[in-house]
Amino acid sequence: MKNYVFISSGYRGGATKFIEQHINYLKKQKIKAITLIDDNPYKTYTGFNFNGITIIQLPINNNYFYSNNKLKIFFKNKNNLNIFITNFAIYIKYFFLLSYLQKNNAKILLTIHSGLLNFTFKNFIAAFLFSLLSKKINFLYFGSSSARDWWFSNFPWFFNKKYKITYNGIEIPKKLFLLKKSKRLNVSFVGRFERENNPELFLRLAKESFLANGIFDFHMFGDGSLFSSLKKEYSSYAQFYNWRSLEEIYKITDVLVITSIVNNFPYVALEAKSYGVPVLSCSKGDISKIIKNNKDGYLISSSDPRILLVYLNKIKKNFHFLVKNSLKNRHTFNINNACNKFWHSVL
Question: Which residue among 125, 192, 333, 341 is the one 20 to 30 A from 19 at the CA level?
Fold first, then answer.
C-alpha cells in the first residue's frame, strides 16, 4: 500500500489550498494512507475535512532537531512513501532525512509556485542551494511557466528534464452572488497581509477612493504579520476581516483587486472567476492565463492608486459585461482535470 505524506509550511495561502485540493482528490481515489504534517494543522487548514487522514502536529519550521527526530520515528518501517512538499526551504532543511528515505524507495514530490517574493540575502542563498540539490527530487512541478522562467533565468543550471508545469484548478461553486442592486460596489483584497502581496497598495487605493468621494466600499480578508499595523492606520477606509469561507467572501465582493507585484498563477484569481467576479490586477506572471484583459477584468502595470481608481470606475461602467465573460469561462481550470493531470504520473 502506498503512503502519501504532505509536509506543510505552517501558514495559510496558495500552498495550503493546493494541499487541500490534492488530499481531497486522493481521498476520492479511495486512498486511505494519507498523512498531513504541519506546525498547527487545525489553524492552518481551517474548515478542512480531516476525516480519513492522519494528522501530525510538528514545529516543522521552528524546531528542526525535535521535528527531524519525530519524523524519523514516523517514517520508520513505512514503505512505498510519496512525500509531497510545497516549500523548497523545507526540502533543504530536511534534505538528509529525505535523501535517506529515497534510498529506501521513497519518492519526493515538490511543487514550486513562484520565485523569491521576499528577496533577501538569506533567501537567495537558500534558493541557490536548492538549485543545486533539486536534481535529486523525483517529481518536480512548477505551478506556472512564469515561475519556471524565474528559476531558469536566475539559476541557468537549474534545468531539470524531470520537471513539469501543472496549473492549479478550482472547484466551481454551486451558488453565485451576482451584483447587488446598489449604486456602490464592494471591492475586496483576499490573501496574506505580507509585503510580497502589497496589501498597503490596496488600502492606499481605498483612501484615494474615500477622498474622491468614490462609490466603492473596501474589504480586507486574510491574516499575516502586517494585519495589526495596517488595520490601525487604515481602518477608516476599509473593513478588516480574518479568513472567511469563499462563500462568505464572495457574498459581499463585487470586484477583486490583486496588488502583489508578482502573482504567477493565483488561486484568488481562479476563485474570483469561479464566482463571476471581475478582477483588477497589477501583478506580473501567468495570471494573464486566468484573467483576459478587457474581457473579465483588467491587467495593468501601474501601482499608482490613482490609476487603479480609474480602472475601478471603468469596471463599474462595464460591470455586467465583465461578469458575463467571467461566468462564461469559469470552467476553464477545473479542479478534477488539474488533479488528474498532476497525479497521472504518480499514482
Answer: 125
Q: How confident is the model at residue 174 (pLDDT cuts 50, 70, 90)?
A: confident
pLDDT at 49 over 80: yes
Strands (E), 98-200: 107-112, 139-142, 164-165, 185-190
Which CATH number do you get for residue 245? 3.40.50.2000
Say whether both 166 and 207 belong to one domain.
no
Residue 299: strand, helix, or coil = strand
List the one residue out of 208, 195, 314, 180 whose CA is nearest residue 260: 195
Does 26 share its domain with 165?
yes
Query: What's phi and psi for 276, nearest 5 deg?
Result: 75, 30
Specify whether 244 is located in the same domain as 103: no
Can you tell me the distance from the alpha carbon of 313 to that of 157, in angstroms, rounded to the nearest whole number? 46
Establish if 194 belongs to a structural domain: yes
Q: How far apart are CA 129 and CA 146, in angstroms?
A: 21
List, in sequence order, the alpha helices (H) in 118-191.
121-133, 145-154
User: Which pLDDT does position 182 carry in this prediction?
Assistant: 61
Cα–Cα dist 343/341, whole Å: 6
Is residue 266 situated within a structural domain? yes
**Predicted local distance difference test score (pLDDT) of residue 269:** 94
Q: Examine the domain organization and report whether 308 and 210 are in the same domain.
A: yes
The 3-state DSSP class for residue 1 equals coil
Domain that holds residue 201: 185-328
Is 261 or 68 the better-scoring residue by pLDDT?
Answer: 68
Tell the burial category of 148 from Cβ atoms under 10 Å away from its Cβ (0-12, 13-18, 19+).
Answer: buried
| CA gap 129, 335 in Å, rounded | 33
Q: 305-335: string of b/e by CB count within 10 Å (b at 16+)?
A: beebbebbbebbeebeebbebbbeebeebeb
